[in-house]
Amino acid sequence: MENTQQSGDARAQLEGTLTYLQNLLRFIDARWQEKIAIAQRYRPLKPLHKKWGLLPFALLTVGVVVLSTAIGTPIIQAWAKAEAYAQGQFHYPNIQPLSVGILAIPVALILALAIVFARNKVVLPHLNARIQRANQQRETHNQAVSVEEQHVDAQLGQASRDFATNIGDRFPQAYLYDEAVSFCLQVVRNHRAIALHEAINLYETERHRQRMENMQAWQLAEAQRTRKLMAVGTVVNATMQGAVIGTIRREGAQTRAALSKPVDVNVRIR
Question: Residues with Cβ < 8 Å from 205, sequence gap 6 or more?
Fold first, then answer.
């Protein structure tokens, strides 16, 4: 009778711990998803346009010279030809593009300087003023988003402290996701297990059965479990994350190497 009472007390205590852990993990996952959604709402600030210097001025000058030469050479050549014919001459000077280009240099310098000056002194201040107004609105929006993110971070920090205080290392790190905890809680409630290692062994047996029945669905479920483990590992203990992911990868390799073998995991709980 005494052993039965002790077993019942242990089972009730384990059920309470698993219920608390389930709620805590679901809270962490919800806050983590909320944090990701909040991060996507940040609006990046637009950079201000810079003034044009010597390089744009030189490029503009060269561009104007080339354009003037390409357009002006045939025009001048046609004009010279028409003048010669008008005077009854059949010979007319051959206009060289180099000569046209040299003549166009002063005009190109003046035009490029005017363009750079107008852009830097007239157009640029107007463009940057509009960008600054837009950035001020974005900064106001980002500050409000930052407040929300800080609130979520505070909740995640409190969840991390609650986990360290109430759970610690009493639950295996490789099973810190909702599906595993929910299964363990269910089998404890149904009196199929009175100890944590028994519940986890039943969970591994169920996972093995699911793997054998539908490999593709199991792989998708494994990917989802890995994502949740990463989120929990980041919140609960940053140094834990590498070990957790390593455990999952080793477990996946062992599963692929021994799909036809029954799985029997013995977990010792402190």
Answer: 262, 263, 264
Domain ranges of the chain: 2-40+169-257, 54-162
DSSP labels for 100-143? Answer: HHHHHHHHHHHHHHHHHHHIIIIIHHHHHHHHHHHHHHHHHHHH
The structure tokens listed for 33 are: 């998803």
- Placement of tokens 């003034």 in the chain: 51
Asked whether residue 27 carries a pLDDT value surpassing 90, the answer given is yes
pTM score, two decimals? 0.61
Instruction: State the Cα–Cα distance between residues 187 and 177, nearest whole angstrom.
Output: 16
Integer CA distances (angstroms), 51 to 3, 56, 62, 111, 128, in order: 85, 9, 19, 17, 11
pLDDT for the residue numbered 143: 96
Q: Are 30 and 151 in contact (CB under 8 A)?
A: no
For the beta carbon of residue 161, count every other beta carbon within 10 angstroms. Answer: 11
Closest Cα to residue 123, out of 137, 131, 106?
A: 131
Q: For residues 84 and 30, what is the distance between their CA atoms, to the nearest angstrom?
A: 88
Q: Give the model confidence (pLDDT) of 129-138 as tens digits.
A: 999 999 999 9
Two structure tokens written together for 58: 């030189």
Tell me the pLDDT of the chain averaged across its residues. 81
| Torsion angles phi and psi, residue 170, rounded to 5 | -80, -10
Question: What are 131-161's pLDDT values in tens digits?
Answer: 999 999 999 999 999 999 999 999 999 999 9
